[in-house]
């Protein structure tokens, strides 16, 4: 994309972006050099995956007088599927119920041993607005267990997990199930507002004359439906458009984005073939086949990727359908307990949930930079540095978004100008970063991804012998989340 086109896009979307754009491009490494380094580092992950488990000697993050909160176990059941495929005839609570049942089966958890259930979701089915409650009842949990649903865009199940941690830390609960679900195969489509007002008035009309008058006021334009859009309410801009502008601001090329997308799919396929995605549990879809693995993992070639046209900013954009996460159906669930309760019940936890932060920025210019803002704050709270982290799991909304975050994290100028920091936090080394694939390949059910990230961190720490993991994600509204997870002693 030429500087002229970039400046034109910036002018349309505010003056701050233009300043950010030019400074970022000048202060980021040269594209060609960065791409070569990135490709080389990406190829080094295979040896890392095969590393022998080693015992680390780092100190624990346990704090005197502070209750230890543990991640006992978790599942993705259902496997994540591309929307419009095998789950298309179900409802969101069907997927959430299956996840809860899978968690019960895996942990042998008594159904009355849970104190609370909290679920995340984004696009709500109006018939089951509190999907946590409907899924819990369907899964056979006691009707005496309170349940509620949270929404925070792509970090909804992150919020569910930290809500659970808060309930336990505050002494309200000892055992909480958290999870998330998203069902993009069937989203609520509404009548236009004028049509809705007419229909509500019809319902209240008392005479035939009133009803006929209201019916006569209906115009053809009133029948146009309102479809939910993955767009910011405050800016009316789609997330894909924001990702395209962000990639341009940081000089992330189409080549780099396609390379990263291929890396994600290739590593996900390798992890799937090697049985590393152990949080996935088979699900028998009523009237259809049993689903046992994610179906969006599709390794490709650079030649095939290059054939796709820009999806948002046409024709000059660099974000395509292939280097973006796809619309996904899926659900997840995790069991979170106080360590004392878990050990009393005979469990061997997977990991400790340690410090976490939520961040928020201007959704117009910095919609997708949550990991950049959240990472240093989470590390500061834990007293850790980037070098202490053994496992990084970042949500991959778009390849351009991920790589823009990596460049922002590695930029002293960005840290000083936008974050009030003296120096950069540094970019994660690629040999530690999303080495089992990510949202680009595994899929991204908006409300369920956070739990997948947490379980992947826990499993990778076990497999690779690490002690500290960091998960981070961006979300609509310019928000983000980061959490430090510590391996449980083996």
TrEMBL record:
Molecular functions per Gene Ontology: acetyl-CoA C-acyltransferase activity; acetyl-CoA C-myristoyltransferase activity
Keywords of the record: Acetylation, Acyltransferase, Endoplasmic reticulum, Fatty acid metabolism, Lipid metabolism, Membrane, Mitochondrion, Mitochondrion inner membrane, Mitochondrion outer membrane, Transferase, Transit peptide
Quaternary organization: Heterotetramer of 2 alpha/HADHA and 2 beta/HADHB subunits; forms the mitochondrial trifunctional enzyme. Also purified as higher order heterooligomers including a 4 alpha/HADHA and 4 beta/HADHB heterooligomer which physiological significance remains unclear. The mitochondrial trifunctional enzyme interacts with MTLN. Interacts with RSAD2/viperin.
Domain Thiolase N-terminal per the UniProt entry, residue ranges: 69-340
Cellular component GO terms, alphabetical: endoplasmic reticulum; mitochondrial fatty acid beta-oxidation multienzyme complex; mitochondrial inner membrane; mitochondrial outer membrane
UniProt GO BP: fatty acid beta-oxidation
Name by which UniProt lists this protein: Trifunctional enzyme subunit beta, mitochondrial
NCBIfam families to which the protein is assigned, alphabetical: AcCoA-C-Actrans (TIGR01930)
Entry similarity comment: Belongs to the thiolase-like superfamily. Thiolase family.
Cited PANTHER family: ACETYL-COA C-ACYLTRANSFERASE, TRIFUNCTIONAL ENZYME SUBUNIT BETA, MITOCHONDRIAL
Compartment list: Endoplasmic reticulum; Mitochondrion inner membrane; Mitochondrion outer membrane
Alphabetical list of SUPFAM superfamilies matching this protein: Thiolase-like
Main location, first listed in the record: endoplasmic reticulum
Originating species: Aldrovandia affinis
EC number: 2.3.1.155, 2.3.1.16
InterPro entries linked to this entry: Thiolase, Thiolase-like, Thiolase_acyl_enz_int_AS, Thiolase_AS, Thiolase_C, Thiolase_CS, Thiolase_N
Pathway recorded for this protein: Lipid metabolism; fatty acid beta-oxidation
Pfam families referenced in this protein's UniProt entry, alphabetically: Thiolase_C, Thiolase_N
């Amino acid at each position: 994309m030429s500087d002229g086109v970039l400046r034109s896009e910036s002018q349309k979307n505010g003056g701050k972006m233009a300043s950010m754009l030019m400074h970022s491009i000048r202060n980021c490494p040269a594209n060609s050099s960065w791409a070569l380094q990135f490709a080389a580092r990406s190829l080094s992950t295979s040896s890392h995956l095969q590393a022998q488990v080693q015992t680390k000697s780092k100190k624990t993050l346990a704090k005197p007088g502070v209750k230890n909160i543990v991640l006992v176990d978790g599942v993705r059941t259902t496997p994540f599927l591309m929307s419009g495929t095998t789950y298309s005839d179900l409802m969101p609570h069907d997927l959430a119920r299956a996840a809860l049942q899978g968690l019960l089966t895996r942990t042998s958890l008594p159904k009355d041993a849970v104190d609370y259930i909290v679920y995340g979701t984004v696009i709500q089915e109006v018939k089951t607005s509190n999907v946590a409650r409907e899924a819990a009842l369907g899964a056979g949990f006691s009707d005496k267990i309170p349940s509620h649903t949270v929404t925070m865009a792509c970090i909804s199940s992150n919020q569910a997990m930290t809500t659970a941690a808060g309930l336990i830390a505050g002494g309200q609960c000892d055992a909480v199930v958290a999870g998330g679900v998203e069902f993009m195969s069937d989203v609520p489509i509404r009548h236009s507002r004028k049509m809705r007002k007419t229909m509500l008035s019809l319902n209240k009309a008392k005479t035939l004359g009133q009803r006929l008058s209201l019916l006569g006021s209906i115009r053809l334009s009133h029948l146009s439906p309102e479809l939910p859009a993955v767009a910011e309410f405050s800016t009316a801009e789609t997330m894909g458009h924001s990702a395209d502008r962000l990639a341009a601001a940081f000089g992330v090329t189409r080549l780099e984005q396609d390379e990263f997308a291929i890396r994600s799919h290739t590593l996900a396929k390798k992890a799937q073939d090697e049985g590393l995605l152990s949080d996935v549990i088979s699900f028998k879809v009523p009237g259809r086949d049993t689903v046992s693995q994610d179906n969006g993992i599709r390794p490709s070639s650079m030649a095939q990727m290059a054939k796709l046209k820009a999806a948002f900013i046409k024709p000059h954009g660099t974000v395509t359908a292939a280097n973006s996460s796809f619309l996904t159906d899926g659900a997840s669930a995790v069991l979170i307990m106080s360590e004392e309760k878990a050990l009393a019940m005979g469990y061997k936890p997977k990991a400790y949930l340690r410090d976490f932060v939520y961040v928020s920025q201007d959704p117009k210019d910095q919609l997708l930079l949550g990991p950049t803002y959240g990472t240093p704050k989470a590390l500061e709270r834990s007293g850790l540095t980037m070098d202490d982290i053994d496992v990084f799991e970042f949500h991959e909304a778009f390849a351009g978004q991920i790589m823009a975050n990596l460049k922002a994290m590695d930029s002293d100028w960005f840290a000083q100008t936008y974050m009030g920091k003296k120096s950069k936090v540094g970019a994660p080394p690629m040999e530690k970063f999303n080495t089992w694939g990510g949202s680009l390949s595994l899929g991204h059910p908006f409300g369920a991804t956070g739990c997948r990230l947490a379980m992947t961190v826990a499993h990778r720490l076990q497999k690779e012998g690490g002690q500290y993991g960091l998960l981070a994600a961006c979300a609509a509204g310019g928000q983000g989340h980061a959490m430090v997870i510590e391996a449980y002693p083996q």
